[in-house]
Write a structure and sequence with these properties.
Length: 302
């Protein structure tokens, strides 16, 4: 179908005097991975919970697979991974996944899914005795066991070790290859950059930027290096080609932008040598999604 998997128009959600979502408009294409990024308190989880049918919007329109998010008919078509909870503490890991699978007409094999996510040896372990990462993987398994058309993943790799995190990435990739629509939130910019077809950055309940990871990061290259804090960047800029920019962020970490090529590289290394500065970890790379995120949402703690 040509209609989006998720379509949100002018969404508003308030909690008392606080407006968590303020006229949010976005869409997630079918068969694609859409990442919703934002600082803490930006409105990500509230948006996802409204799409999942767990919360009501105060204003605006939300359509999920063309239907109202609270429609009963959506339940077998949509998988949901919650941030935490939802499983009886005494329920054994394998029993829970088998129980969830019985609600669907053609589920995946629960045992194979436990093996895939490294949970087979914990099949008889009560949920409360699983580690945080194991509980997270069980929630992911429960979200996909019913072969959904659309999956909502709210911070799916929070608390996972590198091996489990890569296993989750592989599973998301398999879902996308099978034509499943995936909407995820994450605080890991590298994860969003690696997995997503489309990224939406929201702040204070509104969209501040969206596009593919390549569109958001652009084609510009940067020269980065580490040195002692407080270098005289104005003096360095005077020696660089017109149109160059330089900043120190964080202290002792320097980023130069502009026509990054042999001339700029030679100028920087010569300037550092003349100033008695050792430029450590000198490298040329493209802007990252994290760079874009911080430029748009700021660096202050929320």
């Amino acid at each position: 179908m040509d209609s989006p998997a998720v379509e949100i128009i002018d969404l508003v959600k308030r909690y008392g005097a606080t407006t968590a979502i303020d006229g949010l408009t976005l869409s997630a294409a079918r068969g694609a991975v859409t990442a919703i990024l934002g600082p803490n308190g930006a409105g990500k989880t509230s948006t996802i919970e409204i799409c999942e049918g767990f919360r009501r919007a105060d204003a605006g329109t939300v359509r999920v697979l063309g239907a109202d998010p609270r429609a009963h008919a959506l339940r077998p078509r949509v998988g949901v991974m919650l941030q935490a909870g939802g499983v009886p503490p005494a329920m054994r890991c394998g029993e829970w996944l088998r129980l969830v699978s019985r609600f669907y007409a053609s589920p995946l094999d629960p045992q194979a899914l436990l093996v895939r996510l490294g949970l087979a040896e914990h099949a008889r372990t009560p949920y409360r005795r699983l580690s945080g990462g194991q509980q997270q993987r069980l929630s992911l398994a429960a979200a996909v066991v019913g072969r959904p058309e659309l999956v909502f993943l709210d911070e799916p790799t929070a608390g996972l070790d590198p091996q489990a995190r890569h296993g989750c990435w592989d599973l998301v990739g398999d879902l996308r290859a099978a034509g499943v629509s995936v909407v995820l939130t994450t605080h890991h910019m590298d994860e969003a950059e690696r997995l997503s077809d489309h990224v939406v950055i929201i702040d204070r309940g509104q969209v501040v930027a969206e596009g593919s990871p390549a569109q958001l990061t652009g084609a510009e290259r940067q020269l980065r290096f580490r040195a002692r804090p407080g270098l005289a960047l104005e003096e360095l800029l005077n020696a660089l080609p017109d149109g160059s920019a330089a900043k120190e962020s964080p202290a002792g970490h320097y980023i130069l932008e502009g026509q990054v090529g042999p001339e700029l590289l030679a100028t920087v290394t010569a300037w550092c040598a003349a100033e008695g500065v050792t430029a450590d970890d000198l490298r040329i790379e493209r802007r990252t999604l994290e760079d874009v995120f911080l430029e748009l949402t700021g660096r202050e703690l929320r």
